[in-house]
């Protein structure tokens, strides 16, 4: 096995072009487990922790762009105000030690249906920036996940950064687990309110072969939410929203939970998260007024 | 391959490292520092927690080559001579040590918490130590130890 | 007195600095590394195993399969006692369970051994495995009792008749899960041969077992085997008996002529050294309307393996805890294509959960407060032998009282599903804890040198419970010297043979032997002093001389005194040794556990918010280590109640949760406020120092207390552990 240590993005892309079989490694929270368990033994590892560009971030008035290898801890501390939904989800990833190393780029690269940040990326209209020696591509999160642990990356491409609009309204993320920490999601849900577009984004995780947006539920919110003069949401609307979210799920029975429980829990999470987000929006509107 | 790491303040050169091996393996098997424990190899238990460039990480999830040129501090590097660090002393005083296998990782994680947050609340302690499993299971005494160390 | 004081662990500094050397931490020159290859199928035969590529892989020294596997001098008997299992891998082509050892690769580095292991190609003839207890209930049978004398059947009075005529009858069908011990320290063996002498650096709860059985398998004398285990990173039963990986590693090291190290991966630990068996239990209780119990009928079925018939989950609480004239207990097993079960911390907790759940159900049926119901059926005499009073062996009433007070247990319990806080249902529950504790022969030797320092040795173990510390305290007290004058070494079969650390026996057994050895040494030194005309104590009757703080002095004239060191400087070192007990013994420990939970009624998530335990463990030897054990035990009960279960693929027979992300043990953030009280009354019948065991006892009670609290919170009785959220919806 070879250990490749690029120090710039350009060098990393050249190496990846020359050695498409090289496995990118940043926080190691997925790749090292596979190596430790001898589940795979790639011909080469491509270490991205020395590529400074990949751990930087920038923002303008409306958009935040952060490097694929920015650890969760820094994302939470440095970008939590602009990206509250992503910060909430990031805080539920593993343990402090894991968050000190793990990255959103890694979450995307692994494309596990249970990855915690996926639903937020979907609900918040994130765009995944990828690059190769051939050039760059922007892939909307909604087109990035292709199947269980499969994504839209070409063999010579690397995920370079993630671009999201700054939050313009409340965002929420919730997941169900059987203990209070260190939990792989039984199921998860994210919602981002976009008041400037009079709509909301919503997505689910750990409930289908890929993380997915719940469009019918989003459309329902477009119908029922009055953004101009926001009223308290009736329970019936929250319940209907929960049902629509659950109906978009195609979960399986596995060791973490049954399909039936996942559907039930998703409806609950969706109902609650919508309630929290909408109440926060109403609160914000009132205090602005 | 060759890897150069500063471990507990000492520059170390390690040869014949297999690129897929972890920092934990290098510490335990090549550098004679078995204090960091190997218990799950997947970052679930925290027994191998060490500082790398001042940040606590699971050494089992760091590829050896990623530690090149970095500063690593292990449980063996916390005490100064025979004087225990205040976190180590508090673990002894509070009775937070049982079988001791999770202890090295917990001591490093708690040490880091108190460095960042000198007076942590109980929820902050619980959250900070959530990645360190203790099967004996001495969580309540470990909580006591961190509170005690924060006061000392 | 130093005994009873919360002396800091004497092994604490070594453990917090990383200096303590565990089995896998030994540095051995010329070491080679073994990696196990395990069966991918659960039942069938190996029809082809191709090791060619592996054998040619760089660094590989040997590849072992059933074709060239080590042949042993002995075949473990069909009852798994001391031997963990009967089956010896690598002897033939038959597969009994998934994860069975089918090949071993030895290489010069771990990485090369691991890689070569992936190159071995195996073809199997697959048969359909038996995996389910429920699907095989019609094949359940009562096993033979075996050398450990496990009890599978018991009856007194006319249990069925009394049940049929009881004014109140409650029945429940309870299920408990397959569970794994998961000590933090992975199991490890390093075998080093020097000529025909073997040294094993071993993760073991029982040095003597490892020595005896490894020697037996290898056909060498026990004296040729030395087992070393100064520190153990937890065991909980997984490291209690002797399992094949140990003697296989030793045999390979012998034939290879090189030291061999084997460290099991976390995944392998799920199939290499046993597990707690899954059970299905039917339990009925009959009572009068005021809650006086008249009958118990308890029938349990648990899993066993294809080659062993055993169930460690004794259910004596049903027949021994409460006063009840009629009782029947039947325990049967079904054979499955899974490994052989082994004891896991507190085997009686499995039946105890069912018993304490049905007590709660009886409380609901009769309207008698759960605590009052237990007091109403309190036994002062052994229900199995009414002429035998419990006497100093039982202070359970004190436990109920202490625990209820600490918890503020309500005299009038609110109706189930009637209390809400922060959007969740609140409930409280309680349960009795009950577990036998044992003593068996321990030898402790002491040498005191001219400096007055005592070196104490015993071939016992400190599995995390505090043996190092309590023996130090006990010897210091017996000698009348400060604890710092005593140094205790354990974990080496070169020391005097001692008790295994299973069945909560170490503290009482080794502690008492240490007490006697210390007293004997003190008496010897006093005898020397009073016979020595150079001593200020010369001529005083020995009985009038005592010791404190390192000084020997005349009871009536304390000015006549000298130090141990003074005597020994003149006389030279003094040795003593004591063995205790002469015969193995059993006693019982008791406790009462109280729990409060919050249940999210929409998601079914349960959070334990408070746990209180009050325990009768005889005399408390060290308040700090005992407290840690008690709290730890209760958290085990929490894991059993809410999160822990080993899940097996029903078609393939593979364990799906063979890691710490799939098998959920409690984390720091799960742990509620915990409070503990000890009765702290000596039980001289249990041991000469009045101590009993605590480790297993404390993992009883909490599971049922939490389950009962969940029922109180939600109005739903889940009789299937663990109580995962889906079961509450």
Automatic annotation (TrEMBL), chain A:
Residue span, FAD-binding PCMH-type domain: 1-169
PANTHER family membership: XANTHINE DEHYDROGENASE SUBUNIT C-RELATED
Pfam families, per database record: CO_deh_flav_C, FAD_binding_5
Highest taxon of the lineage: Bacteria
InterPro entries: CO_DH_flav_C, CO_DH_flav_C_dom_sf, Diverse_Substr_Oxidored, FAD-bd_PCMH, FAD-bd_PCMH-like_sf, FAD-bd_PCMH_sub1, FAD-bd_PCMH_sub2, Mopterin_DH_FAD-bd
Organism: Kibdelosporangium persicum
Name of the molecule in the record: Carbon-monoxide dehydrogenase medium subunit
Keywords: FAD, Flavoprotein, Oxidoreductase
Classification via SMART domains: CO_deh_flav_C
From TrEMBL, chain B:
InterPro entries the UniProt entry points to: 2Fe-2S-bd, 2Fe-2S-bd_dom_sf, 2Fe-2S_ferredoxin-like_sf, 2Fe-2S_ferredoxin-type, 2Fe2S_fd_BS, Beta-grasp_dom_sf, Diverse_Oxidoreductases
Keyword Hydrolase on entry: no
Keyword presence, Oxidoreductase: yes
Chain segments annotated as transmembrane: none
Gene3D superfamilies, A to Z: 3.10.20.30, [2Fe-2S]-binding domain
2Fe-2S ferredoxin-type domain location: 1-78
A Pfam family it matches: Fer2_2
Keywords: 2Fe-2S, Iron, Iron-sulfur, Metal-binding, Oxidoreductase
Top-level lineage group: Bacteria
Name the record gives this protein: Carbon-monoxide dehydrogenase small subunit
Automatic annotation (TrEMBL), chain C:
Domain Aldehyde oxidase/xanthine dehydrogenase a/b hammerhead: 17-128
Transmembrane segments: none
Domain of life: Bacteria
Keywords (A to Z) from UniProt: Molybdenum, Oxidoreductase
Cross-referenced SMART domains: Ald_Xan_dh_C
A Pfam cross-reference name: Ald_Xan_dh_C
PANTHER family: ALDEHYDE OXIDASE 1-RELATED, XANTHINE DEHYDROGENASE
InterPro entries on file: Ald_Oxase/Xan_DH_a/b, Ald_Oxase/Xan_DH_a/b_sf, Ald_Oxase/xanthine_DH-like, AldOxase/xan_DH_MoCoBD1, AldOxase/xan_DH_MoCoBD2, AldOxase/xan_DH_Mopterin-bd_sf
Coiled coil: none
Protein's recorded name: Molybdopterin binding aldehyde oxidase and xanthine dehydrogenase
């Amino acid at each position: 096995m070879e250990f490749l240590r690029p120090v710039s993005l350009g060098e990393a892309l050249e190496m990846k072009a020359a050695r498409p079989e090289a496995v990118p490694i940043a926080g190691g929270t997925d790749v090292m487990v596979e190596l430790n368990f001898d589940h795979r033994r790639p011909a080469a590892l491509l270490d991205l922790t020395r590529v400074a560009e990949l751990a930087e971030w920038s923002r303008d008035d409306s958009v935040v762009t952060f490097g694929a290898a920015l650890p969760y801890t820094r994302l939470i501390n440095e970008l939590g105000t602009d990206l509250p939904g992503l910060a909430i989800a990031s805080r539920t990833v593993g343990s402090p030690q894991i968050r000190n190393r793990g990255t959103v780029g890694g979450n995307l690269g692994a494309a596990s249906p249970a990855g915690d940040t996926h639903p937020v990326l979907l609900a918040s209209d994130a765009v995944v920036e990828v690059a190769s020696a051939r050039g760059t591509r922007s892939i909307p999160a909604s087109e990035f996940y292709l199947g269980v642990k499969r994504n839209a990356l070409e063999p010579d491409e690397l995920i370079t950064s993630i671009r999201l609009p700054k939050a313009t309204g409340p965002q929420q993320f919730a997941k169900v687990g059987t203990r209070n920490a260190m939990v792989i999601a039984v199921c998860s849900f994210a919602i981002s309110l976009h008041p400037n577009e009079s709509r909301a984004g919503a997505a689910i995780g750990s409930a289908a072969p890929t993380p997915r947006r719940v469009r019918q539920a989003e459309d329902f919110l477009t119908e029922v939410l009055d953004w101009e003069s926001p009223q308290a949401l009736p329970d019936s609307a929250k319940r209907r929203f929960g049902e629509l979210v659950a109906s978009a799920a195609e979960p399986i029975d596995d060791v973490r939970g049954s399909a039936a429980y996942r559907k039930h829990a998703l409806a609950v999470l969706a109902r609650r998260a919508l309630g929290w987000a909408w109440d926060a929006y109403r609160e914000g509107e009132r205090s602005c007024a | 391959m060759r890897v150069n790491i500063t471990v507990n303040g000492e520059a170390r050169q390690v040869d014949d490292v297999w690129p897929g091996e972890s920092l934990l393996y290098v510490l335990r098997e090549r550098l004679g520092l078995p204090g960091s424990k190997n218990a799950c190899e997947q970052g679930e238990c925290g027994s191998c927690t060490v500082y790398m460039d001042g940040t606590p990480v699971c050494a089992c999830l760091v590829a050896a080559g990623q530690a090149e040129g970095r500063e690593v501090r292990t449980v063996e590097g916390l005490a100064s001579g025979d004087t225990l660090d205040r976190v180590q002393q508090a673990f002894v005083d509070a009775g937070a040590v049982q079988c001791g296998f999770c202890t090295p990782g917990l001591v490093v994680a708690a040490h880091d918490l108190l460095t960042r947050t000198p007076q942590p609340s109980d929820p902050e302690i619980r959250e900070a130590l959530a990645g360190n499993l203790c099967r004996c299971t001495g969580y309540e005494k470990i909580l006591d130890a961190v509170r005690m160390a924060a006061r000392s | 007195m130093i005994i009873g004081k919360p002396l800091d662990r004497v092994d604490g500094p070594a453990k917090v600095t990383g200096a303590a050397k565990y089995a896998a931490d030994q540095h051995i020159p010329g070491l080679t590394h073994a990696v196990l290859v395990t069966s991918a199928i659960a039942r069938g035969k190996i029809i082809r195993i191709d090791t060619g590529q592996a054998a040619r892989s760089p660094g590989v020294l040997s590849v072992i399969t059933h074709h060239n596997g080590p042949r042993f001098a002995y075949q473990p008997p069909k009852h798994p006692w001391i031997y963990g299992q009967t089956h010896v891998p690598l002897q033939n082509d038959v597969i009994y369970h998934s994860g069975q050892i089918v090949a071993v690769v030895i290489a010069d580095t771990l990485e090369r051994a691991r890689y070569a292991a992936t190159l071995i190609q195996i073809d199997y003839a697959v048969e359909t495995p038996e995996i389910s207890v429920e699907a095989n209930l019609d094949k359940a049978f009562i096993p033979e009792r075996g050398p450990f004398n496990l009890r599978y059947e018991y009856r007194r009075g006319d249990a069925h008749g009394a049940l049929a005529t009881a004014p109140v009858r409650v029945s429940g069908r309870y299920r408990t899960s397959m569970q794994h011990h998961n000590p933090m320290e992975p199991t490890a063996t390093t075998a080093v041969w020097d000529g025909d002498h073997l040294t094993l650096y071993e993760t073991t709860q029982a040095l003597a077992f490892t020595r005896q059985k490894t020697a037996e398998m290898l056909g060498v004398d026990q004296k040729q085997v030395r087992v070393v285990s100064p520190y153990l990173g937890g065991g909980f039963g997984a490291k209690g008996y002797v399992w094949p990986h140990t003697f296989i590693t030793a045999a390979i090291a012998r034939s290879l002529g090189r030291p061999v190290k084997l460290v099991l991966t976390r995944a392998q630990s799920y199939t290499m050294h046993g597990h707690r068996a899954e059970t299905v239990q039917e339990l009925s209780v009959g009572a009068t309307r005021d809650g006086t119990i008249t009958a118990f009928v308890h029938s349990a079925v648990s899993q066993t393996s294809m080659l062993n018939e055993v169930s460690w989950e004794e259910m004596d609480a049903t027949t021994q805890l409460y006063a009840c004239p009629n009782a029947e207990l039947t325990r049967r097993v079904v054979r499955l294509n899974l490994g052989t079960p082994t004891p896991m911390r507190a085997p009686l907790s499995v039946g105890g959960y069912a018993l304490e759940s049905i007590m709660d159900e009886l409380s609901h049926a009769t309207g008698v407060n759960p605590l009052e119901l237990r007091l109403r059926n309190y036994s002062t005499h052994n229900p199995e032998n009414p002429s035998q009073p419990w006497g100093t062996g039982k202070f359970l009433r004190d436990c109920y009282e202490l625990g209820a007070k600490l918890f503020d247990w309500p005299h009038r319990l609110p109706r189930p599903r009637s209390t809400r806080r922060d959007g969740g249902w609140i409930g409280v529950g309680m349960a009795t804890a009950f577990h036998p504790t044992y003593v068996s022969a321990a030898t402790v030797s002491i040498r005191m040198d001219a400096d007055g320092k005592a070196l104490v040795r015993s071939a016992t173990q400190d599995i995390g419970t505090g043996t190092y510390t309590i023996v130090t305290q006990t010897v210091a007290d017996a000698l009348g010297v400060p604890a710092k004058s005593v140094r205790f070494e354990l974990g080496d079969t070169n020391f005097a043979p001692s008790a295994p650390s299973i069945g909560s026996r170490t503290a009482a057994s080794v502690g008492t032997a240490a007490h006697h050895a210390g007293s004997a040494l003190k008496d010897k030194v006093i005898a020397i002093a009073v016979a020595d005309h150079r001593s200020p104590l010369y001529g005083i009757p020995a009985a009038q001389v005592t010791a404190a703080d390192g000084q020997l002095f005349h009871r009536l004239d304390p000015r006549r005194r000298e130090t141990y060191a003074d005597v020994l400087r003149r006389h030279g070192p003094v040795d003593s040794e004591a063995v205790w007990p002469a015969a193995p013994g059993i006693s019982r420990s008791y406790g009462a556990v109280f729990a409060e939970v919050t249940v999210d009624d929409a998601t079914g998530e349960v959070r334990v918010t408070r746990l209180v335990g009050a325990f009768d463990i005889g005399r408390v030897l060290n308040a700090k280590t005992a407290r840690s054990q008690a709290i730890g035990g209760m958290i085990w009960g929490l894991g059993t109640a809410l999160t822990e279960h080993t899940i097996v693929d029903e078609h393939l027979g593979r364990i799906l949760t063979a890691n710490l992300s799939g098998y959920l043990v409690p984390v720091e953030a799960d742990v509620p406020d915990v409070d503990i009280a000890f009765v702290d009354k000596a039980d001289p019948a249990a041991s000469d120092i009045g101590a009993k065991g605590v480790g297993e006892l404390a993992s009883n009670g909490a599971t049922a207390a939490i389950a009962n609290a969940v029922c109180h919170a939600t109005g739903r009785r889940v009789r299937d552990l663990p109580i995962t959220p889906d079961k509450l919806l």
